[in-house]
Predict the 3D structure of the following.
Amino acid sequence: MSKTILVTGGAGYVGSHVCKALAAAGYTPVSFDNLSNGHEWAVKWGPLARGDVLDGNALDDAISTYRPEAVMHFAALIEVGESVKNPGNFYRINVAGTLNVLEAMIRAGVNAFVFSSTCAVHGDVGDVVITEDSPIAPISPYAKTKAVVESILADFSIAHGLNAVALRYFNASGADPDGALGEAHDPESHLIPIACQAALGQRDGMAIFGDDYPTPDGTCVRDYVHVTDLADAHVMAWERLMTRKENTFEVFNLGGGVGASVREVLDAVKVVSGVDFPVEQHPRRAGDAPKLVADIAKARAQLGWKPQRSSLENIVKTAWDWHRVNTR
Ligand code: UDP
């Protein structure tokens, strides 16, 4: 019988791509999702257990019904600007919700956990490449919730024998190469989906937030990593958890390992779409660091992972193909 993995937030962007990768690797993903931000259409590779991470009974029920070997935890609020306005919701769902998940696992004797974390736990690092050991100095409430959960995981591995991995994503982007899944947030705040919407005429144009950063073309530099590469890393992290001798907590950076500026991304969307949509220059967006680029040596060496689909061209092409077909 195939091993079952409970995927909280399995109807969301990264969670749904991970479900597809788990199914392809022979596992059964069970999506635990309240569908507040996720989409029922994105749950295609295993059952949907509809429930909320704030509801401990619903978590107990899902775990006793499906008997998972591990939990992959994506269910969280993610919009940085919203976290500044409404920090309480973020601490409640992202921190208290994660505690609920961990405590339900402990009650049921499940101890393998893969956590969806973020490079934003480092804050503004300046002009350096970020390693797993770079200082933790989150700026936004969103990033603080992720940093707090990482501390909780370290403590739970000591206290309760939790066997956990946190994967710190850089800029998750792109879409399933088969066109089955894509990025659909409402409201949308991410650069590539917004550019695709502008190219499709779904918005009048778009803004570049800041062109006076200390970067080669003055716009922010980010490390874009294809969501399917991220999905593969989750399968590899779980396989590592299954085989390692001690229950412990580890962190891995997941990025493409190269930076692209906002202007370079927009140029790529214009080339792929063939549409020269209007772009305005706006002031800086609060909380944006000039440059965030990953050192991915640890994930390469210890997970055996490599970002195979994360060229900017492929990221933009898969994102564009999905938006073109699914959001008209
Ligand atoms: N950005 C932009 N215009 C937009 C959306 C984003 O210039 O309409 C910039 C943003 O300021 C940042 C980069 O694009 O420098 C990536 O932003 P995104 O929100 O996609 O991801 P983040 O890096 O914030 O996780």
Q: What stands out?
A: Residues 171, 189-191, 194, 206-209, 220, 222, 262, 285, 288 surround uridine-5'-diphosphate (CB under 6 Å). Residues 173 and 226 are 5 Å apart (CA to CA).
